[in-house]
Amino acid sequence: MTKKERYRFVLDWFQKHMPVAETELHYSNPYELLVAVILSAQCTDKRINMVTPALFERYPVPELLAKASFEDVEPYIRSVTFANNKTRHLIGMADMLVNKFHGVVPDTIEELVDLPGVGRKTANVIISVVYAKPGMAVDTHVFRVSARIGLTVKATTPLQTEQQLVANMPQELLAIAHHWLILHGRYICVAHRPKCEECGLKEVCKYYNSDMKYIVDPAYTRK
C-alpha cells in the first residue's frame, strides 16, 4: 500500500464514521479556550473541565486574570498537573494578551507562541478551532496514532509529525483530522493496550499488521 492510499483510506474512514469531531474542552470564547488548552498540557480534558467553571467565573476576561496574584489563581487549578507553573503561565499570558494584543487572542502561530505557556501545539489548536485556519496540533495521541498507523515515518518530534501530516492531508481537513486522531488515540488506539479488535483502520495500520494481528486474532497465521 502506498502512502497516498493509506492516507485516503484513513481520511475516508473518519469522514464516514466520525463526521463530527471537536475538542472535548468546555469553553465559550477564544480566551477561555486558550486558558483551557494551556491547562490541559499533560492533563486530561475531564479534569480541566472540572476546574475551569470556577476559574472562568472568577476571571471571565483576561484583564482580571492579568491583575491576579499567584495566591489568587493557584487554588482554582491546584488539582491540575504542574499547577504552579501553569498558574504563572496563565497570569503571564493574560498580562501579555492585555498589554500587547489589547485583550484579543492572536490568530497566528508566530504571535500565539510568544504568549507564556503557549507552545506550537496550543497555537495550532487556537488557529484551527477559533479561527478555522488549517493547523495540525500534535499532542501525545496524534503523535502515537500517526506513527502506529503509518501516516508518519521516522518522525521523532511533534514538529516532524506535524510537517508530515500537513504535507499529506488536504488543508481543509487538517483541523478536523487533528480531532479525529486525538479521539481515536483517546478511546481506541490507547497507549498501553490498543483496542485493535474495535478499530476500523486495522486494514491499513502498520502497527496492527506487523505486531498486533497475531495477538488479537490467534487463528491468524503468517503468510
UniProtKB/TrEMBL annotation:
HhH-GPD domain mapped to chain residues: 39-187
Official protein name in the record: Endonuclease III
Necessary cofactors: [4Fe-4S] cluster
Pfam families for this protein: HHH, HhH-GPD
SMART domains: ENDO3c, FES
Gene Ontology terms, MF aspect: 4 iron, 4 sulfur cluster binding; class I DNA-(apurinic or apyrimidinic site) endonuclease activity; DNA binding; DNA N-glycosylase activity; metal ion binding
GO biological process, one term: base-excision repair, AP site formation
Keywords attached to this entry: 4Fe-4S, DNA damage, DNA repair, DNA-binding, Endonuclease, Glycosidase, Hydrolase, Iron, Iron-sulfur, Lyase, Metal-binding, Nuclease
